Amino acid sequence: MTDTVPPANVPAREAAPPVSAGALTAKMHVDNLSVFYGSFRAVAEVTLPIYDRRITAIIGPSGCGKSTLLRSLNRMNELVPSARIEGHIALDGNDIYAPGVDPVLVRRRVGMVFQKPNPFPKSIHENIAYGIRLYNGHMSRSELDDRVVHSLKRAALWDEVKDKLKQSAYALSGGQQQRLCIARTIAAEPEVVLMDEPCSALDPVATLKIEELMQELKQDYTIVIVTHNMQQAARVSDYTVMMMMRPDRAGEMIEFDETQVIFTKPRDKRTEDYVSGRFG
Amino acid sequence: MATPFTRSALDHELQNIRDDVLRLGSLVEEQTERAVRALKDRNLDLARQVVAVDERVNQLRYKIEEQCLTTIARQQPAAADLRLIVASMHMAVEMERMADHAAGIGSVVIRMGHEPLLKPLIDIPRMQIICCEMLHQAMEAYIKGDVPLARAVVKRDEEVDQLYNQVLRELITYMIGDPRTTTRATYLLWVAHNLERTADRVTNLCERIQFAVTGELGDLAPEEDEN
Ligand SMILES: Nc1ncnc2c1ncn2[C@@H]1O[C@H](COP(=O)(O)OP(=O)(O)O)[C@@H](O)[C@H]1O
Ligand SMILES: [Mg+2]
């Protein structure tokens, strides 16, 4: 992948510094966020930095609001009519919920990969081209083709599909389909990629490929992943958000720290119990 | 799917590890006691036994390390469970070395044969008693996760160091006074040195106990006196 020449309009960025390096920038900032479905509060008062070009994992028991928190990061929760938020979420310091902000532009900068691979019933090429056209005006056929190739290479799928770009995406394996969806997401050139249990429908080998890909992608993208697989969070992420349900069933963040701390010496007893498998 | 492994299997394996660490602890305690008793009683058979039993100690150490590795691989423990396992592995290695010190004393006794002792034994048996008490209490701190107790054990290392210095100074006066005593003095010096190292290693055990409980690595300094 290192031999890939990015298209001119993709700005080259420096490699991410190691986690331990001092200066971390928050790409996003969640500030006292609560999310409601009607009168039900699903997420309560979460404050959290999302560090630039790091992988942040959100873990916690089912129903504690992980997906809700994730979806609020690109205003995807607005697709639920009853949903509303309190608090603020900033992207590069600008409130993404401020009046006048176009949610479509937010979703271009903050892309999303879903739990089940969801390619369109079209060719591999068309799937990626869709991701590119979604947010771009007209471009020449050759420019489009270049960017399809670039995205597939970036998603570590190129070698496997280069001879069958015209074939249906449905002919790919589950793991390949998920990498295709990642390629489609990054084809839109987002800055942040949200992933909601991206491996839960995949076998272990396909899962490892996605995890490798995530390490590769974090050079250029900020990644937030929801996972119910704690070993996965421990393997792939730099930071971990531990969420839990309060007695009123609202999800709250009970601990946020470097992943290594969460899995070796968490501060909160509930985190300790959860990562040790003592929960429930 | 909230729990990727069954807790009861992990608990069972942790219990096996703890039991074996305790068994290793009492074996090392016994070896140390028997080695010094062999010296006091000039019992060559007992000294040979101590040297022979060292092989059992080695086997138990490897068994513990293997159990720890298997548990990590199969159960993917985290947090306090993971720390306990890692601490137990280090402690097994440390205790195996303590048993090497006991076997070392046994070898010295064998080499001394029936040569008369240079001087009556006073400080060396005291060093042994303190070492064994320290080890015993360290095992108690391990099982209870008792960091203050571990810290109290570390403090007793000073007593052993003092006795060692006393033995050393005394033996040097013998050697200076009559160079022909050098060989016999050296025997006792080896014994005392082995015991001094044993106590040092107990303090290492205590540091691992602290790590298992709190996650902090490093020196376990005795607590400052309140007054
Ligand atoms: N569209 C929705 N409408 C109403 N309630 C919802 C909706 N989506 C999720 N919830 C509720 O919000 C809470 C959090 O859900 P979710 O964010 O999916 O949790 P998680 O991802 O941690 O399993 C749950 O109680 C769930 O029932
Ligand atoms: Mg979810």
Give the key terms.
heterodimer; A: 280 residues; Rossmann fold; 10 strands; B: 227 residues; mainly alpha; 7 helices; 82% helix; 0% strand; elongated; disordered N terminus; binds adenosine-5'-diphosphate
Describe the structure concisely:
Chain A is of the alpha/beta class and 280 residues long. Chain A is 33% helix and 25% strand. Chain A has helices at residues 66-72, 103-109, 124-135, 141-154, 158-161, 174-187, 204-217, 230-236, 259-264, 269-275, and strands spanning 26-37, 40-51, 55-59, 83-91, 94-95, 110-113, 192-196, 222-226, 239-245, 251-258.
SSE blueprint and pairings:
The complex is a heterodimer of chains A (280) and B (227).
Chain A: E1 26-37, E2 40-51, E3 55-59, H1 66-72, E4 83-91, E5 94-95, H2 103-109, E6 110-113, H3 124-135, H4 141-154, H5 158-161, H6 174-187, E7 192-196, H7 204-217, E8 222-226, H8 230-236, E9 239-245, E10 251-258, H9 259-264, H10 269-275
Parallel strand pairs in A: 3-8, 3-9, 6-7, 7-8
Antiparallel strand pairs in A: 1-2, 1-4, 4-5, 9-10
Chain B: H1 7-41, H2 44-75, H3 79-112, H4 123-144, H5 147-155, H6 157-177, H7 182-214
Helix pairs in contact in B: 1-2, 1-3, 1-4, 2-3, 3-7, 4-5, 4-6, 4-7, 5-7, 6-7
Residues 66-67, 226 of chain A line the site of magnesium ion.
Description:
With 280 residues, chain A is α/β, with parallel strands linked by helices. Chain A is built from 10 helices and 10 strands. In chain A, strands 6-7-8-3-9-10 form a 6-stranded mixed β-sheet, sandwiched between helices. In chain A, strands 2-1-4-5 form a 4-stranded antiparallel β-sheet, covered by helices on one side. The longest helix of chain A has 14 residues, at 141-154. Chain B has 227 residues and is mainly alpha-helical. The model of chain B is unreliable at 1-5 (pLDDT under 50). The longest helix of chain B has 35 residues, at 7-41. Residues 37, 42, 62-68, 80, 249, 251 of chain A line the site of adenosine-5'-diphosphate (ADP). Magnesium ion binds next to helix 1 of chain A.
